[in-house]
């Protein structure tokens, strides 16, 4: 294991991660509009269809953790990444709402697998003593993709670029990412000890169930907000293409806070980062909900980004520190599965709430969910982590 964080393999992992999420985020803000304009889908239908992506990712992730821990991780990553890449072609071919729904559902399976495998490989190639910084910097690649992808997509949409061109761009970007990860040289690793029968801890990190439950409340808010902010900005605030700028400001906030948070995580202030980050998130969601103007829309993006940037690397570090090295894949899949459960609920219930009660009620429920998450962490989760952590 190299002691330098920015070694060749880690750099390749970051580039592959960026291109994977760049292709993903190209589609995040445009798909609700695409379904609305192309198939005249209702808000509830949009929420239900898009939530299938999170649902299928959720279904596969526990098994992905087991596979990543049981088989050569580089091989698993290449197979999963290629599957994620090829499904982008499905959006171009899907000419009906039913076909789109099928493609979107199947794409979720590949995303759930590749996200576990890529994160685990990245952790394998970073030095253990710099894991806090490594996770934070690796996440910056996601955030740069979040910054550039939605902004580019919404500007393309604003200038009436065809949806199939956007889908093709996502396909090409993901193909370049696949070529990049093929160059990574994965280190030798621990394997799972032999067991006579399958057990739950092969698929789910049992020691982290409190942390998982807590994370669901935070990701619920994120899933709801990111799915409906583009339509909300267009219908309620008259902002055309505004979600691209929102994601840009959101990503800038995440990147800034991640760079500072990484140093505090390495010094052991993991729970402190989560407390401060969740508190900042709450402020951002309250601004977004109750200041119904472009100023509130855009200022909340920066604040939510700052909170997310402090919260996410610390939260993932908690899951890693609760698991032995042989279960890094399981720890990552548990973390990501928990995120998917909350995000999927946010997408699905968000559409129902918007249809029946309006946008204020929907985004207000996101703020309430963050509040519950903050209280749970202070009263239960932080204490459990300090008792059960392995490192």
How is this structure best described in words?
The protein has 391 residues and is an all-alpha fold. The chain is 81% helix and 0% strand. The protein is built from 14 helices and no strands. Helix 12 (294-321) packs antiparallel against helix 13. The longest helix is centred in the C-terminal third of the chain and has 30 residues, at 328-357. The protein is globular and about 50 Å long. The two termini are 18 Å apart. The model has no long low-confidence stretch (mean pLDDT 86).
Assign a percent range to the helix content.
over 70%
Helix/strand/pairing category: mainly alpha
The total of beta strands comes to 0
- Order of SSEs, N→C? HHHHHHHHHHHHHH
What is the gyration radius calculated from CA atoms? 20 Å
Question: Treating each run of at least 4 consecutive H or I residues as one helix, how many helices?
Answer: 14
**Shape estimate:** globular
Largest sheet: number of strands, sense, barrel closure = none
Write down the overall mean pLDDT. Answer: 86
- Unreliable residue stretches: none
| Distance, first to last CA | 18 Å
Question: What amount of the residues lies in strands?
Answer: under 5%
Would you kindly provide a brief summary of this structure?
This protein has 391 residues and is an all-alpha fold.
Reconstruct the topology from this structure.
Blueprint: H1 8-27, H2 30-39, H3 43-70, H4 73-86, H5 88-93, H6 97-124, H7 131-158, H8 163-181, H9 209-236, H10 242-266, H11 270-290, H12 294-321, H13 328-357, H14 359-388
